[in-house]
Every structure is written in C-alpha cells, then in structure tokens.
C-alpha cells in the first residue's frame, strides 16, 4: 500500500505544481501585464487588489479552458479563494470529481 | 404612446403613493441576484417596506430634513431604506458599502468624514455592520443606527387616502424646492461635495429626460449600475420607479463577474433601455463567451445609452460588431452627456434623433482647439453598417455626438474669460437649467466657486456643431475609470504615506486605454532612495517593494487599482511656478519619456 501511495502523492504534487505555474504565468502575463512576476503561493490575490474585479471573469474563463473546470461567477470572491494555493486546491478537487 | 409627465408641484412621497394606489400589484423592480431566484417588488410592497423604515425613523425622533446615510450593498434593503427616508421626509444619501479590498479603518475614516460634512442624524445599515457604524458615529451628529431587525414587526396600518397617510408620514409635506437627496462622488475629495437636489429639480429632469427618450409605458429599463452614482441612481432607479416603468436591477458586483447576465436580463425581460459607461462596451464585447449568447435576443433594445465617461467611437463599433448577430440594432447605440449637478442628463442623442458622427482633423483639434471637419456629419448608423471610408487621413478622428440639450437645459461653450466661443471651437462647457443642484451640501464655498453668473462650470471641454455637443476632454484633473470619478489628489496623498516615497512628490493622472475603453490610472512617485544614484545602484528589490507597497496601500485605502506605478529620482516631476506638482505637464512627460518604453 505504502509503495502505491508514494507515487500517487508525488503525481498529485506534480499536477498541483503544473496548475500553479500555469495560473501564475497567465495572471502575470494577461492580468498584471508583468510577464516575469512571481506570485507566492499564499499571496493575497483578491483582497489585496492584485487582481481587480474586472479581471476575475478572465481568470474564470481561463481556468475553464485550461483545466476543464468550472468556477461559477458567484465563487469569484475572496471568501472562496484569495490565494493561488486555494485556487489550485479547488481545481484539483473538481478535477478529481470529474474522474 | 404618449410620454408620461410628473407633476412638478408634487414630491417623491406623493408620486410613490399615487403609483401604489393606481397599480399596487404592478412590479416596480425585478431584483436579480446571481445564484438566487429573481425577486419581484410591487409598488404596494415597496410602499409598505418604505413605511416601516419611515416609522422607525419617526419613532427615533429623526426630523424631516435631516440627512440619513444608507450603508448597504445593492439590494432590497437599500431600496426600502431609500424610500423609507423619502416617506419620512429626511434626506437619503447612499454610501458605497465596504468592499473586500478596502481596509476597515480606512472605510471608517471615510464614513467619519462624510458624517462631519453632512451632519446626518441617522445611519441605516445591516445588522453585521451595526457595531462598525456605531464606532464611526462616535462623537458625530448621528443619533440612530437603524437595521432591518429593529423595525417594528407589528402589522403596518397603511391608511387608504393620501390625506390620512400624509398625516402620518411627513415626506408628504415636503416642498418642491426642498432637498430630496444627496449624491456623492467617491474618495475623500468626492465626499466633500454632496450634490444636493430638490424634489423639483429631479422631477424637472425626469420630465425633460422622459421626453428626450420618448419614454412610454411599454418601456423596460435594465440596469446593473450602482445606486450611489448619478447614472444608476437617476436613470437606473428613480426615473423608472417614479414613471411606473418596470426596472430590472442587478448588482454591479454580479455584472462584473458575469457580464452576459445583463444581456440575458435584457433578452428575458424584453428590456428596451439600458445605460452603460463607455468601458462597459469594451468589457462586454471582449468578455462574453459565445456560448453565453445562445438564445439571447437583443432586438428589443431600442437604446443602449453611453454616458458618464467620454464616448469613444471604437467602443460602439466593438460592441455593435460583437452583438449584431444577437439582434442588436445599429440605431440602438445612443449617447448622453450627464452629471449629478444637473441631476443627470444634459444632452441626449439616439432616441429622438439619430446619433451623428463628426469626422475631424485630430491634429488641429490638439494644436488649435478647433474641430475642422473633413466632410458633412455622418449618421453613426451608416458608419456602423458600412466600412469606414478609406480616403480618410490618418489624423482623422471620429467624434460621436452627445446630442442636443434636453428641454429646460441650455449649454454654452466658453473661453477662460467666460466669453462665448463660436461653433466648432473647443472651450469649457457651462450650463443653466431648471434642474440644477441646490448646492453642494453645507459647502457654500464650493457652490459659489462652481458657478459663473448663474452658469454651472462643468470643467469638461467640448465644442458645439449644428446645435449638438461633442465632448473632447477635461479641464479639471479628474480621472474617470469605468465611469467612476477619481480625484488624483486622493491617490497622491495615499502614495505619499508609503515609506520610501518623498511626501508630496507624487503625480497621478489618467491615460486612455483603447483596448479597455476607459482611462487607466498612472502614478509616478519620487523616492529619496533614488537620490544621487542611478536606479541601477538601488537594489531593484527595494524599488519593487516600494511599488508593491504603493499599490497595496492605495488599493486598500481607496478601492482603486493602480495600473501603472513608477518610482523616479528626486526632481523628475515637473512643478508649477508655485511649487506644486503639475499633473498635466507630468502626464505629457510620462507619455514622452516612459510610456514609449513599456512593452505590454
């Protein structure tokens, strides 16, 4: 069992890392217009004003297109996610539910 | 159908009561909220809900003529409390609610400032905000903080005749010349200038504007605009309610996250009129995916009116191209020039006359302040439906007309000495009307400054041609982002508070972004850290930290996102002869020296 769990966990970590860097690149390039900008995992995105409300719809549409996961417009607020870490967790969870 | 007119000798309370008597079961407002079922509010319900707030204000001994501040998000409570204050005879003023970006202490400071200037006696808000409101009210004139939960649960006894109800609710005895509401712009500077409007001024505006719109009983107004802004408050709230026109109201919070819901609402409710700031044309055209347009029919829309920031031809073009296939008519792209000081509309085009475009020489407009046309004015519709003529010079600009003044409003274009300018010469727009503000509330000094021989000086620049107004720019330093007025001095003061920024050595201004269809805020700050060094010697990390801190501090204190922030060495900024930072000159310097090097 333990032997099987190990690769699964590392596979999930890899998936999380990929989603994280894809989101980081998109936000830096398309929303912040600072292509090299590194966003720290727990950096506040919405409550800090880093992503302003006019760009939230872009983020949701990108996630849908890139990861086939739907983020409803009612979820685009700091109570649902305010960091990349939290957003990655939502995407992973919904992808897992899809099978 | 005959347009409707309101009796200018009546007040808001009488008109509302009249409607509730005439058509108690008619829906006044369809309230839409993402994730919830639509809520319908009939005139009878609206009156009942308003009565319970009015009663609570009376019981707390709040006096007619007192200012009542409403601190709510978009929704039923705000609507009920607004008309509650009206029935009670007090003067409602809507304060935008705290957003997740704003720091609570900063918001409290804004509230305190508002309390200081307007001297309200009551605040109406949510139970969750009660404690915060009390804290802000400490030491102020506020005697009551009211929430829905505190309203009397006893069955309200609504008297049947106007005479009976008038005895109970003093809103019925308000005189036409008395103030009915206050309207504020945002920010520290905006809060200083509460535009005070009388019952008569608002009713005159509604009558003149209804005429310009050819408003009829089969119209349906759809709006997502905030009620603390003149466009939302008048066109998207008071006008439909007092005229008995159904209003479909969604919140700006929901719209910005799902702009297609506006189009869905127009299609579902057969909306005929809608007002949008210029940026919303770009926003809708760019951010609505194809699948959200399925089944949407916009052919019911007879006017979507561009207003509250400068109208750009390209924005109309983008919007029309995107939604033509959904049934949008090219004749529906209308315009208006409006401001809170005239209650709302000053001019209107596209509802009674066709919107005209003026093809002018852009260089000569900048250099000589004269609009020299290349040809006769062209109807906008023909430009939208046919490709642009190819023989136009590259310096040609397409100016979209804002139309003729509405009835009861006169316009002059004047030079800096107050002399009238001939047609096609750019000058300051001044106006005189039967719907002018009573004054900036408790700010006689500002009121006096705003007028010249009875004419209100708008601070906007434009020219007249064939009796139509073309707005070209602004004399004042105001920045308008997405229809929202931003005072640069507020942003400059906040940036000055950041460690590493030389206090007072900051310039903020707006630069128009074609893609977004609105201005972006640019802020340039001088830093002592860069003194005597080239920026290469100062650690890049430190510069980045200061810039990030400026962004964070300004956003959390003003709810305004800064698009471009630059740190420069001491004495980079251009000063006026009196030593002040000259925004206009610095904007020019930025466009010359910094902007060309940005690669986006």
Summarize the structure.
The complex is a heterodimer of chains A (99) and B (600). Chain A has 99 residues and is mostly helical.
Essential attributes:
heterodimer; A: 99 residues; mainly alpha; 61% helix; 0% strand; B: 600 residues; alpha/beta; five-stranded mixed sheet; five-stranded antiparallel sheet; 19 helices; 29 strands; 34% helix; globular
Give a verbal description of the structure.
The complex is a heterodimer of chains A (99) and B (600). With 99 residues, chain A is mostly helical. Chain A is built from three helices and no strands. Chain A is globular, with a radius of gyration of 14 Å. In chain B, strand 11 (273-276), helix 12 and strand 12 (303-306) form a beta-alpha-beta unit. The N and C termini of chain B lie far apart (52 Å). Chain B has 19 helices and 29 strands. Chain B is an alpha/beta fold and 600 residues long. In chain B, 52% of the residues are buried. The mean pLDDT of chain B is 91. The A-B interface holds A 33, 46-50, 52-54, 56-58, 60-61, 72-74, 76-79 and B 34-35, 100-101, 253-254, 256-259, 261, 283, 287, 289, 482, 551-552, 555-556, 559, 561, 600.
Number of helices of chain B: 19
Shape call of chain A: globular
Helix content of chain A: 55-70%
* Helix/strand class of chain B: alpha/beta
Which two chains share the most extensive interface?
A-B, 21 and 22 residues
Largest sheet of chain B: 5 strands, mixed
Mean pLDDT reading of chain A: 89
Low-confidence stretches of chain A: none
Q: Report the C-alpha radius of gyration of chain A, rounded.
A: 14 Å
Q: What is the oligomeric state here?
A: heterodimer
Determine the N-to-C terminus distance of chain B.
52 Å
Largest sheet of chain A: none
| Strand-pairing-aware structural class of chain A | mainly alpha
Q: Which strand order spans the largest sheet of chain B, edge to edge or round the barrel?
A: 11-12-13-14-18
Report how far the terminal alpha carbons of chain A are from each other.
21 Å
According to DSSP, the number of beta strands of chain A is 0
- Mean pLDDT, all residues of chain B: 91
The residue fraction in helices of chain B comes out at 25-40%
Radius of gyration of chain B: 24 Å
């Amino acid at each position: 069992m333990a032997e099987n769990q190990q690769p699964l966990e590392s596979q999930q970590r890899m998936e999380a890392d990929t989603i994280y860097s894809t989101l980081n690149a998109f936000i830096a390039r398309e929303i912040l217009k600072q292509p090299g900008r590194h966003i720290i995992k727990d950096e506040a995105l919405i409550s800090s004003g880093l992503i302003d409300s006019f760009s939230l719809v872009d983020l949701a549409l990108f996630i849908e297109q890139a990861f086939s996961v739907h983020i409803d417009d009612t979820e685009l607020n700091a109570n649902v996610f305010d960091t990349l870490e939290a957003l990655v967790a939502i995407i992973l969870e919904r992808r897992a539910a899809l099978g | 159908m005959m347009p409707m007119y309101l009796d200018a000798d009546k007040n808001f309370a009488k008109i509302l009561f009249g409607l509730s008597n005439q058509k108690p079961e008619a829906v006044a407002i369809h309230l839409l909220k993402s994730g919830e079922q639509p809520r319908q509010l009939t005139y009878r319900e609206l009156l009942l809900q308003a009565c319970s707030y009015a009663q609570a204000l009376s019981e707390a001994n709040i006096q007619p003529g007192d200012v009542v501040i409403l601190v709510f998000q978009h929704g039923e409570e705000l609507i009920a409390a607004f008309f509650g204050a009206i029935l009670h005879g007090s003067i409602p003023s809507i304060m935008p609610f705290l957003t997740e970006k704003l720091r609570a202490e900063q918001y409290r400071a804004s509230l305190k400032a508002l309390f200081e200037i307007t001297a309200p006696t009551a605040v109406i808000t949510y139970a969750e905000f009660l404690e915060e409101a009390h804290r802000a009210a400490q030491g102020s004139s506020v005697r009551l903080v009211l929430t829905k939960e505190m309203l009397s649960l006893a069955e309200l006894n609504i008297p049947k005749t106007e005479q009976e109800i008038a005895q109970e609710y003093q809103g019925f005895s308000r005189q036409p010349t008395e103030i009915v509401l206050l309207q504020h712009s945002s920010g520290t500077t905006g809060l200083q200038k509460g535009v005070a409007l009388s019952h008569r001024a608002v009713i005159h505006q509604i009558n003149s504007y209804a005429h310009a719109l050819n408003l009829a009983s089969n119209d349906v107004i759809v709006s997502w605009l905030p009620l603390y802004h003149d466009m939302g408050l008048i066109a998207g709230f008071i006008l439909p309610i007092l005229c008995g026109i159904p209003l479909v109201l969604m919140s700006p919070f929901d719209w910005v996250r799902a702009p297609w819901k506006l189009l869905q609402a127009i299609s579902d409710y057969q909306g005929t009129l809608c007002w949008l700031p210029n940026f919303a044309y770009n926003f809708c055209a760019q951010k609505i995916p194809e699948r959200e347009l399925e089944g949407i029919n916009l052919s019911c829309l007879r006017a979507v009116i561009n207003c509250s920031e400068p109208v750009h031809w390209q924005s109309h073009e983008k919007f029309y191209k995107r939604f033509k296939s959904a049934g949008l008519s090219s004749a529906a792209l209308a315009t208006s020039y409006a401001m809170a000081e005239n209650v709302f509309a000053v001019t209107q085009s596209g509802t009674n006359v066709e919107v005209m475009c003026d093809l002018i020489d852009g260089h000569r407009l900048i250099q000589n302040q004269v609009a020299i046309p290349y040809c006769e004015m062209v109807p906008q519709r023909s430009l939208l439906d046919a490709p642009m003529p190819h023989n136009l010079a590259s310096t040609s600009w397409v100016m979209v007309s804002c139309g003729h003044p509405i009835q009861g409003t006169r316009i002059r274009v004047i030079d800096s000495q107050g002399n009238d300018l001939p047609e096609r010469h750019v000058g300051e727009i001044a106006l005189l009307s039967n719907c002018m503000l009573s004054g900036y509330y408790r700010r006689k000094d500002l009121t006096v400054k705003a007028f010249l021989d009875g004419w209100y000086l708008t601070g906007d620049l434009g020219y007249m041609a064939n009796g139509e107004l073309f707005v070209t720019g602004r004399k004042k330093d105001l920045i308008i982002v997405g229809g929202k007025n931003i005072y640069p001095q507020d942003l400059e003061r906040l940036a000055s508070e950041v460690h590493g920024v030389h206090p007072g050595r900051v310039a903020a201004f707006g630069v128009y972004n074609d893609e977004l269809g609105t201005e972006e805020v640019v802020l340039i700050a001088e830093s002592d850290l860069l003194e005597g060094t080239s920026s290469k010697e100062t650690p890049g990390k430190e510069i980045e930290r200061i810039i990030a801190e400026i962004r964070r501090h300004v956003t959390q204190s003003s709810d305004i996102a800064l698009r471009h922030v630059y740190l420069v060495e001491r004495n980079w900024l251009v000063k006026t002869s009196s030593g002040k930072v000259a925004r206009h000159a610095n904007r020019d310097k930025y466009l010359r020296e910094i902007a060309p090097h940005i690669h986006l």
